[in-house]
Amino acid sequence: MDIQAAVATGSGKAFEIRTVQLDEPREDEILVRVVGVGVCHTDLVFKEGGVIAPPVVLGHEGSGIVEKVGAKVTKVAPGDRVAMTFRSCGTCARCDRGDAAYCQTMPLLNYIGMRPDGTKTLKCEGEAVGSNFFGQSSFASHALTYERNVVKVPDDLPLELFGPLGCGIQTGAGGVMRSLACEAGSTLLITGGGPVGLSAVMGAKIRGCATVILVEPHAARRALALEFGATHVIDPAVDKDLAAAVRAIVPIGVDYAFDTTGVPAVLTAVMGALGPKGVFGIVGISPPGTPVPGDLNNLMTFGHTVKGIIEGDSDPDVFLPELIEHYRRGELPFDRMITTFPFHQINEAIAAQHHGDCIKVVLLMDA
Ligand SMILES: NC(=O)c1ccc[n+]([C@@H]2O[C@H](COP(=O)([O-])OP(=O)(O)OC[C@H]3O[C@@H](n4cnc5c(N)ncnc54)[C@H](O)[C@@H]3O)[C@@H](O)[C@H]2O)c1
Ligand SMILES: [Zn+2]
Ligand SMILES: [Zn+2]
Q1: CB–CB of 210/204 below 8 Å?
Q2: Ligand 2 centre and the CA of 102: distance in Å?
């Protein structure tokens, strides 16, 4: 079928809205009419990084309405409202333990720009177009996705805003609630207050952390962090020695740290702010080749842990409904971070996000 998609055509080039052809769903595939899709920093990393050869349709925070399902699909039916998340196999040892974010076939199912059998679901003027990004490629009017990718969204909630639950929000909130599992009364440092860092702040409030310090250069993001439950904010342009600024608040160093910047100098500074047995979770994407931060002898002496985190260790079928309940109770007001743009303004929206004019962009499909 003909659909509209924002095609990434190469590093440094704007997305192009094109008519492309999408395959009919195979027996395990679900056709979703996308109503909204969030822009995550990871989309931009893949657009610029060339990991998937262009042309490719990115987008991995889509939400929409199921239009058609393949013969083997039982989890959802046409008409169901769903948020889409990352893809996992559901059968490997990791998935069996509810550890879907570390599925043994995670790279193959999410990052190669095609189905695992090598076929692509999209074509443009006869040329195959990269697809299956996070098992959805939802910068498009329609997406082909899979049972493990979809979670139902109740009828009374604004479906178009719920795609980001499937990546940025579950990564930030889950990073603190599941991966670090910060205890009530603990101290936490969060570096970077974009959508992921601010979701971590909301997660910290839910967990009952006593001290939540957010480091972020944009004043509006620091202000929102305070409203979401941060107890302290630091402007890195003013406090250039991060470890000293944190120790001025928590002299012994923090119990937990969570990085969303991926900036090597920030990662190194965070190691100096960790207290005894401090655990440092990292989700921000660093430049290729960045070493694990810190000094091994310090790590040993103070019993530190440095931990890579994917998607907040989420098991989406369990954690997304939990996050929806927190949203209903007013504990996860993620919609306050969102600015919506029409889909065809994808490039303008990304520029606005880049300049700090808005925090989280959600593109709404043009009617
Ligand atoms: N590991 C995962 O599963 C996963 C999932 C989602 C996103 N990510 C990655 O997480 C990161 C955060 O995502 P996002 O959408 O919030 O990105 P973002 O770019 O919106 O947020 C990063 C924030 O860091 C701030 N920042 C920049 N330099 C800083 C400094 N020196 N000190 C403190 N703050 C600084 C920026 O102003 C920005 O607000 C990205 O790298 C993204 O690719 C990883
Ligand atoms: Zn698996
Ligand atoms: Zn993402």
Answers
A1: no
A2: 7
- Tokens encoding 141: 């009017």
Residues 6+ apart with CB under 8 A from 139: 5, 6, 15, 37, 43, 57, 58, 59, 346, 363
Task: Report the SS3 class of residue 339.
Answer: strand
The pLDDT tens digits for 81-123 are 999 999 999 999 999 999 999 999 999 999 999 999 999 999 9
DSSP codes, 292-315:
PPS-HHHHHHTT-EEEE-SGGG--
Question: Residues enclosing ligand 1, CB less than 6 A?
Answer: 40-42, 45, 167-168, 171, 191-197, 215-218, 221, 236, 260-263, 266, 283-285, 309-311
Distance from the CA of 116 to the center of ligand 1, in angstroms?
A: 29
| 307, β-bridge pairs | 281
Nearest residue (CA) to ligand 1, atom 43: 42
Single-letter amino acid, residue 23: D
Question: pTM, whole model, 2 decimals?
Answer: 0.97
One-letter identity of residue 306:
V
Instruction: Tell how far the Cα of 45 is from the centroid of ligand 1, in angstroms.
Output: 11
Residue type, 251: P
Task: Look at residue 172 in the predicted model and tell me its pLDDT.
Answer: 98
Q: What is the best residue among 37, 39, 41, 167 to mutate for testing ligand 1's pocket, by most ligand atoms within 8 Å of CB?
A: 41
User: Is the alpha carbon torsion for 151, 283, 259, 236 positive or negative?
Assistant: negative
